[in-house]
Amino acid sequence: xxxxxxxxxxxxxxxxxxxxxxxxxxxxxxxxxxxxxxxxxxxxxxxxxxxxxxxxxxxxxxxxxxxxxxxxxxxxxxxxxxxxxxxxxxxxxxxxxxxxxxxxxxxxxxxxxxxxxxxxxxxxxxxxxxxxxxxxxxxxxxxxxxxxxxxxxxxxxxxxxxxxxxxxxxxxxxxx
Length: 176
Description:
By secondary structure, the protein is an alpha+beta fold. The chain has one domain: START domain (Alpha-D-Glucose-1,6-Bisphosphate, Chain A, domain 4). Helix content is 27%, strand content 39%. Strands 1, 2, 3, 4, 5, 6, 7 and 8 form an eight-stranded antiparallel sheet that branches. β7 and β8 (131-142) form a beta hairpin. α1 (10-21) packs antiparallel against α3 (148-174) and α2 (51-58) packs across α3. The protein starts with 9 loop residues before the first helix and ends with a helix.
């Protein structure tokens, strides 16, 4: 089931707008051949909360739309996640690995309007008593040379905003 659509706030509208700016009409990533340079991005955040509390929010691939501001909704079933951005663009992803024991999951984009040849990402939670570190990293190849800096900036902002929202959600629940 889809998460409820949240009204766009300033941060959500900004991130959704950036997603729309780099969109490329319906390229199926499964059919693309790659000779592009792979880019790596990684964002991390410290969260005041146990790894179990953080993973309870971050570990459900279908609930990512509840804490990533650029996403209006998300759903997950049969190993596939579908995310819809604030402007209505749809991103289909395949979850490749999911481990509650290791508090980590890896996914790849299989179809989206973004100009990507390939994209694989891992979200992981590592705990240290009553606080945790969440890392969201990705390897991607742009569809065309020269698109990498804009995509890198867009994904970095998306990850930072998502991780900040995740922290607010976990810490808000802990102190509620």
